[in-house]
Amino acid sequence: QVQLVESGGGLVQSGGSLRLSCEASGNIYSIYRVAWYRQATGKQRELVASTDKGGRTEYSDSVKGRFTISRDTAAMINLQMNGLKPEDTAVYYCYAFQLNWNRDYWGQGTQVTVSS
């Protein structure tokens, strides 16, 4: 089992920066892939960025060059968001995947609001 708790959301002006953090607990060394997703009001949840133990990192086209995902320790996953735009406003969710058990986990979400 893995538990995920996000922090760092809030209100920021357009062009500003925020850093989201996700603290994992439980069987953290079994986590193969971590990611950040977001869901804006009335829209489907979408992938923002992901990274895995194989060294693969990917970003959605809408955030490339502005956001950076990092897994600084086995328990801490961060998302540095620079150059924020109003269209980045959404609830951001931390995600973890256990390859050996084919199980995935979600955090409770943290709100990010970017004002114009």
List keywords for this structure.
116 residues; mainly beta; single chain; 11 strands
Give the gist of this structure.
The chain is an all-beta fold and 116 residues long. The chain contains no helices and eleven strands. Strands 2, 4, 5, 6, 9, 10 and 11 form a seven-stranded mixed β-sheet that branches.
Tell me what the structure shows:
Strand 5 (46-52) and strand 6 (57-59) form a beta hairpin. Strands 2, 4, 5, 6, 9, 10 and 11 form a 7-stranded mixed sheet that branches. The chain has a 4-stranded antiparallel sheet with strand order 1-3-8-7, with no helix packed on it. With 116 residues, it is an all-beta fold. It has no helices and 11 strands. The model has no long low-confidence stretch (mean pLDDT 96).
Percentage of residues in helical conformation: under 10%
Query: What is the number of helical segments per DSSP (H or I, 4+ residues)?
Result: 0
Question: Element order, helices and strands?
Answer: EEEEEEEEEEE
What is the average of the pLDDT values? Answer: 96
Rg (CA only): 14 Å
Distance between the termini: 40 Å
Number of strands: 11
Q: Kindly estimate the percentage of residues that lie in beta strands according to DSSP.
A: over 45%
Q: What overall geometry do the principal axes of the alpha carbons give?
A: globular
- Helix vs. strand class: mainly beta
For the sheet with most strands, the description reads:
7 strands, mixed
Low-confidence parts, pLDDT < 50 over ≥5 residues? none
